[in-house]
């Protein structure tokens, strides 16, 4: 399967690591950057159907999805709802691309969140376009966490309304799914919500709304983006993560281009590393040998 899009690493001009082992803050750590990025991607999608950036490339997402399929569904167990119905969450889902691959792979209980309303809307539109039943969940106005995000909201950031796949205005899928994958997509369900992962009250309120923590939590590039905000933001993400991962055997699978495998293991030491997923290296921004690291963790018994 493939998608007509460009592959990009985390940053057009990657910041050098700071002396203390932290990342130097950059624009990619700000909400404004992502709001602008996804507003542009929404426009591009409307004008010529571009699905937007696939961060670290199609291959990185495929490796994560393939590992999840092999580990959680397995050969011949595709129709076992106890496996395919495991609750999946993609943190900072962007355009929703990895969730669509998870749907095509046979996972049926999908969730995605992002703090950028335009990202949530782009995911919703693309889901509807490929025939994946989708809803956007939002908290009642006065609920804790519904309006307490640290950043002020502009008019253009109002919650998108809930829609179903039936409102798809374009019939053609931009993905090259085969028949079985298309069938899987139609039999899956995606819930999206806008959530700032650094706001503990909002995380808890959205967990209550979504029915509790998740069996499989995915992160491709979101921890990287948050690490480019500040060391304290990065540490808040680590602190909030256990709220999101099911205490009964939940997994967290992360892909990063700013942190090595060893650093990821150290940062997420509250979890037990169970696999290092092979990822390619590439060159960009004048720096060579930048690795993409991918590690799967499980909650400690
Ligand atoms: C590098 S992009 C990766 C997007 C997507 N995971 C992918 O692989 O294409 C980082 C994503 O993290 C989101 N993000 C950054 N900080 C966040 C936060 N505090 N809460 C929720 N999402 C955040 C951004 O809006 C953006 O969609």
Concise structural overview:
With 301 residues, the chain is of the alpha/beta class.
Task: Outline the fold blueprint.
Blueprint: E1 7-8, H1 31-48, E2 54-55, H2 58-73, H3 81-84, E3 87-91, H4 97-105, E4 109-114, H5 117-130, E5 134-136, H6 179-186, E6 189-194, H7 200-210, E7 216-220, H8 222-227, H9 231-244, E8 251-256, H10 261-267, E9 271-276, E10 281-284, E11 287-291, E12 293-299
Parallel strand pairs: 1-2, 3-4, 3-7, 4-6, 5-6, 7-8
Antiparallel strand pairs: 8-12, 9-12, 10-11
Helix pairs in contact: 1-5, 2-4, 4-6
The structure holds S-adenosylmethionine (SAM).
The figure for the number of domains is 1
**Shape, please?**
globular
Order of SSEs: EHEHHEHEHEHEHEHHEHEEEE
Helix segment tally? 10
Main pleated sheet: 8 strands, mixed
The CATH homologous superfamily corresponds to Vaccinia Virus protein VP39
Beta-strand residue percentage = 15-25%
Q: Biggest sheet: strands side by side, in what order?
A: 5-6-4-3-7-8-12-9
Question: What small molecules accompany the polymer chains?
Answer: S-adenosylmethionine
C-alpha termini separation: 36 Å
The name of the CATH topology is Rossmann fold
Give the total of beta strands.
12
Mind telling me the CATH class?
Answer: Alpha Beta
Helix proportion of residues, in percent?
25-40%
> Based on helices, strands and strand pairing, what is the structural class?
alpha/beta
Mean pLDDT: 85
Q: Provide the CATH architecture.
A: 3-Layer(aba) Sandwich
How large, in whole angstroms, is the Cα Rg?
18 Å
Low-confidence stretches: 1-13, 146-170
